[in-house]
Structure formats: structure tokens, C-alpha cells
Amino acid sequence: MIRAGGDADARELARQDRWLEELRAENQRHRSLLEERTNQFQKATVEFEQRHETLKVLLAAVQGGEDIETAALRGDGATMLVRASIDEAEARTSRTRPVVTASLEKVGLRAQIDTLREDQMRFLDEAEDYAVNRTEELRGVLQLTGVGVGRIESAETNIGGPLVELTSLVASENMTAEEVEFAERVAEIAARLEEARYYEEVVSRIPAGDPVGVEYRLTSPWGMRTDPISRRPNWHGGLDIGAFSGAPITAAGPGTILFAGYKSGYGNVVDIDHGYGFVSRYAHMRSIIVKKGDEVALGDKIGLMGSSGRSTGPHLHLEVLFHGKRYDPANFLKAGRHVHKG
Fold first, then answer.
1. Which of 104, 112, 158, 291 gets the most CB atoms within 10 Å of its CB?
2. What CA dihedral angle connects 25, 26, 27 and 33, to 10 degrees?
3. Domain residue limits, the chain
4. Which of 259, 249, 246, 230 is nearest to 299 (CA)?
5. Mean pLDDT for each 10-residue chunk of the chain (342 residues)?
6. Which residue intervals of 145-250 are DSSP H helices?
């Protein structure tokens, strides 16, 4: 009997040992699972924090922050991302600038990550849509000038700007396929935003504003005409604008005074360098109130309307040049209606 009882006790002890081992194994599985999920959560947290930091840079670019360094726009032979052809620029309704948001109300790590990912992709879509639409509009404005976007692009072999470090854009061997895809998407949109920023700068500087500070009329167009003095057909390389003697002559765009003085035929003349190859010329002035090297803003007064030089009466002879070649100033005034409103 004692032996039988001993066997029963041994079996019970063995059963309890197996039960304890199973508990230990189950506990270890739970600990391993908890550790794995904790690591996954920490990795996901770091990943999405990095993504949000990257998206903050993009958001700053959309809202008017620093330029973004992108190979497509740095003179390395790469082509522009957008090649839209616009015949007429139409006014657009401004869209709400995208804002990065991340809802954490859904239950569970997977749901939180999915929500963050959806918010981020929505932001990227909004940013890309804004950049493409804005670039299209600005290219259309430049097309109206008659210079042509292609000429402007080919003339600019080096496009500069402050460098904003986007560390998330650099793929590394530790990045997952999803992270690489995200980085490539961000890089593409960063290039689109930089392209829109470049066109914003060009359009903001072209001489497309009013060249006279009062109401005026166009008295002689650009192109072939009968010369008012010789009465023979000749080429008129500018646009004549009439108002009254002493009317204020104003800068049609921001820039630097390239020349201020007297030129044969032109009389008192001012040339303004607007950058990107654009120069505006104001001739036959009665007097000049700026000097070479002065910086002027759009609408700044540079002189008074007169009839100096080869002229039959008070008016402004306006010329616009792109890399030394004359273009019809009337086209720039037309383009300016889409830029300088109100």
C-alpha cells in the first residue's frame, strides 16, 4: 500500500511539474510576444515620427518656407517633372493648404498605424495636387508673355536656393520596401514643390505690372508701323504709352537699376534688370529719379513722363528684353492681369 501511494504521489508531482513547465512556457511566449509587439510599436513610432518630421518640411514648403534641394532642378541635365502647355492662364480658386493630422482614436496598434499612414498619404496627395496645379498656372502666365517656358528653362542652367535636409529621402540598407517607397514619393513631391517655387519666383519678378502710376492709354503698338517722324514703314521695338507730361513712370517689376541716363534716340532712359534674363526699358522720360545700382520694387516711381530723345510728344516708350531680345510688352501687361490683381 505504501508503494502504491508513493507511485500516486510521484505521478501527481510529475503532473504538477508538467503543468508548471507549461505555465512557464506560456508565460515565456507571452513575454516574447509582448517584447516583439513593444519593439514593433517602438519601431513604428520612430518611423512615423520621422515621416511626420519629413512632412513638416514639405508643409513648410507649401506654406512658403525654405526651398528644397532636388536633383531635378539643379542643373544636372535632368528634365522638369511637369511639362504642361497652357495657352491662357485662368484664375484659380485657392485651395486650403494641407495640414498633417494623426488620429489615435482607433483601438489597437495596427489601426493607429493605418490611420497615420492614411493621413500621411492624404497629405502627400494634397501637396502634390497643389504643386502641380500651381506650376501649371504659373507656366501658363509665362506662356502669355510670348517668351515661352522652354526658353526660360533652357536659359537657367543653375537654379539655386537654400538647402533643406530631408534625411528621410535617403534610402539606406536598413529601410524596408515600404519605407523606400515612401521616401521616393516624398522626393518626387519635394521636386514638384521646388519646381512650383521656382516658377513663383520667376513670375514674381517679370516686368508685368503697370509702367505708369496713373491711368494711361496705348498709343503705338510693338511691331511694324509708319514712323511718326520719317513717315516711312519701320520696326517699332517697344510699346508707346500715353498719359500726360510729368505722369509718374513706375517699375513694372522688382529689380536692380541697370542704367539710368541719356541714350541717343531714347532720350532719358532707365533699364531695370529683373533677373532670370529679363530687362525692362523706359524711354523719353522728362526726368529720372533713380541711379544705377538702386533696388526697386514693383510700382516704385523711377521718373516722370516726357518727350526727350526722338519723340513727337509726351509718352513712355516701353521695351521688354529677354537675354537681349525684344518681346512685345503688351503680352507682359496681359500676363500681369493674372498676377497683379486689384
1. 112
2. 110
3. 7-205, 217-336
4. 249
5. 64 75 71 61 60 64 51 34 37 41 50 73 82 89 88 61 43 65 79 86 94 93 65 77 96 98 95 96 97 97 94 92 95 88 55
6. 149-155, 177-205
